[in-house]
Structures are given as C-alpha cells and as structure tokens.
Amino acid sequence: MKTIHYLFTAMLALSACASFTACSSDDTTDSAPTPQTADGFYMTLTIKGTEANGTNAKATRTAVQEPTEAATADESTVNSGTLYLFSGVVGSGTLAYKKTISTAEWNDAKVPAQGQDGSITVKLPIKNVTVGTSYRVYFLANGKGVEDDPGNSTIEAGDVKFVNSYAKPGEFIMFSQNDPGHLANQYTVTFTEENKNKDKPATLSSPILIERAVARIDVPTNEATNLTEPSAEDLANMTTQQKEALQDARDNVKSITLEKYAISNLSKKTYIMQHWSDNGYLTLPTNSLGYWQTFDEFGTATRQDNPDFFKAVTGASADYVFENTTSLNNDATAMYFQYKVELKSYEKADFTDGTFYRYDGKIFTRLADIIESNEYGNNPFGKTADEVLSEDLQRTDGKLGANEAALEAFRNAHNIQIFPQGMVYYRQLIQDTHYTRENWFSILRNTIYRLNVKSIWNIGADVPNGDNGKETEFYYLKVEVSVNPWVLNTQNVILK
Description:
11% of the residues lie in helices and 32% in strands. The protein is mainly beta. The protein has 2 domains: 40-212, Immunoglobulin-like (Sandwich); 217-487, no CATH class. Strands 1, 2, 4, 6, 7, 8, 10, 12, 13, 14, 15 and 37 form a 12-stranded mixed beta sheet that branches. Strands 5, 16, 17, 27, 35 and 36 form a 6-stranded mixed beta sheet that branches. A 4-stranded antiparallel beta sheet has the order 26-18-29-33. The chain is elongated and about 95 Å long. This is Minor fimbrium subunit Mfa1 C-terminal domain-containing protein. One of its GO terms (cellular component) is pilus shaft.
C-alpha cells in the first residue's frame, strides 16, 4: 500500500532439517507430481518495504513520501510466516506449494543483531515444484489459521471491537503489499536443477514488500482550551442568528477541556490481501459482518446510549482497526470527542454539578431565566421552574437525577438542550487524505490516523449524535487529521 518504507531484514537458514521430507512445516498441494517435478530445491526470499526517498521510490495511487512514522518493536517484529507459491495469480491460480515457519522455529534461531538496511532474507528448502515453471510468490507474516488462498481469504475481529487478535505485540499480521500502483502478483521465481544446491538458491525477481492488515487510530490531541472566533470567511457565510449564538457562547464559556473520546463504525472483517476494483477503488468483503460500535449505538439526536464506549484520553493507547470505505456518513469510521465545559458564572444555577442548558441558541444555568425573560413570551414549560426541576429533571441534592429516557422526553417536549455535568460532544469523520474517492470516506491499512483539535467555535451537542434540527449549524470544530504511513523496522533474524 502507500509508497511506504518498511525495511524488513532477516536470514533464515533451516539447516536443522536433515531432509526436506522431515520438515513438518512444509505443506504441498494434493496434486500428484509429474515426472518433471523434483524435491530438494532451495530458494532465497527477501522481504522489505518501498524506498522512502530517492530514485527507487515507487509512486502508487496512495503514495505517501512523508511524513512517515517509525513503527515500534511491537508493531514491526516478525515472529513467523508463511510462503506461498502459486501457478497463476493468487485468488484465481493454483497453490503449488506452501511453507509455514512456526514461531518456535523463528524464535529458536533468532540472532540479536541489527542489519544495516533492515532487510530480511530467508533461505528455504522447497518441495514439489517443477523445473522451468514460473511461480508467483506471496508472503504472510505472523498469520495463523489462514486458508490456502490468501488472495480471497478474510480475517474477522471475532468478539472484540478492536482487532487486537491481529495486532498483538510482536504478532501484527502482514501480507504482500497490493494496490493499483504496486500489485502483489509481481513477484516471481523459477527453479532450475542447480537450485538443488543450497549454495545456489533460486531468487525472486525483486524483494517482496509487506504491510500490516490493520490501521492505527491514535489517541486524539487537543489545542483548544477555549472558544475562538471563526475566520472572516466563515463569519461571512453565517446568519445574524448564528453569529449571535457564537458570541453568546464566547461570553459565557470560561474553558473547554477534552476529557474522553470514542471511535464508531469499526469494521469486523477484511481481506488478508488488500482488494481493489478495476477502476482503482478500495473494496471490502461483500459478506462483511458490519461494524462494531455503530453510529446508532451512541444514541439518538436527543439521547445518549452506551457512555462506556468513551474512554479518557489520559493514559489511553492507540487502537488498531480494519480498513473501511463507504459513501454513507453514518457508516464512516468516526471519532467522538467529549469535552467538559466550564462556564464563567454559576450564580444561582439550578445545579451544583455543572449542568446547564441551551435554549434558542443561548446558554442558561437557570430555567427561571428562560421563563422570566420577556424574549420568550409565555412559559415554554407550562410549569414553574421548581416543578420542572423536581418532576422532570429530578434534581436531588443539587445534582441532575433524571435518566436518559427522562432527559430525552424533556429535550423533545421543549426543544431544549440540557448538558449533564457540563459535557458536550462533537463527531468527526476520519478520512484518508492520500486516498480520495468523491463522496466516500475511507481509512486504509498500514496507516496511522491522528486527530488534533485545533480550535472550537461553539459548544457541541448535549448527546453524541445530537443536533436538535436547527442547532446543527451551531457546532463548529476544526480538526487537523494527520495521515501517516508506518515505516517498519526490525532486526536481523538468522535461522539455522
């Protein structure tokens, strides 16, 4: 995928096998060998990534020269692998040979020495191949339980929302890079009689490039500590009512602090090898299992559901997910932000826990102020402020006691927003800026997505999916999305 520079190096020399038939890690097809087929070949496999800079850089549709980000040891280590030789293209050809190197075999022979170029070279004994036949070569790193056709095989998240089973420290699943600019089927090898000599192994036409099958979404960062004024261009496009609402928010808000975040629409399934359509668009399995933490699981426009989806930004770690592509906003992978708003004044406020309201685009801490203001005419609640607080909002010891069902009924009945404990929410769709498809939202494998909130113009919704109709246009959040390919680095590995 993306012209990304992953440098993988290692040397595997499986001399522990006294004969090729004694190696339990060798798998062959069920087809009977022909007279031209002989056992006892050797093959040298080199695995690495594209060049980050210079004349060897390979420009692809999703090419990213920089910035790149070095992977951690947990993200880049290769502990096992499977080599595939196909007669024809994977996905439609015939599997001629498969060799799996177990974690035990790999780790037992590991030499703790870092190579100069970080490359991995593997010398493997090969069986059941035909002299003079060209085979296409594919490599799966750290993959377990994969079928014989990795081109069409899929992996599933199982019962975990984040794909930790494929992103364990030192066990990230990786496969041959495959995108419109760098196809996985370009690597070939042809065996001759002299390749039966381990000192004269067959070699690939070029080193195989591999990439992780998962994307990484980092913990968000924040530069916004208070509300700021929109740009002159944005102000010019606003109505008088919108400008008044923004000014009212700035007049009332003392500070705004990012406390928690959540990610929605996490794909449950992906291909082992990345798939693209004939016209160059990323495709996902047609029998996809859908998403974890879907948009609607976060609630309605007036109710919050599943608050446990949110986690504190402090101490949080990156999340690993499968790639996603969709033309539907509500299916796009997105990040929710939860901010704590502190107002400049809580004098005579209805609540002592920071709860406040927004009515007709303006902020209030007292229902009585809404009722008594001549601006609103008749009492919009049909009750006194104390009755509403007692009966509808169930105020107890100065704190909001109503559950989400009661709050939803209150919001809908009176077209008002109520912010429990001063929490407000924003939602930002995540988009890969290097792969663009008109009116689609996509995140791609082997890529880091890092969101940084640059500025906030107004307080958000009172629930994650909230908008209350006309209020939608009053939410303004400027987010900078950093999209970085990983650079893979690993140490030399020699198997003897």
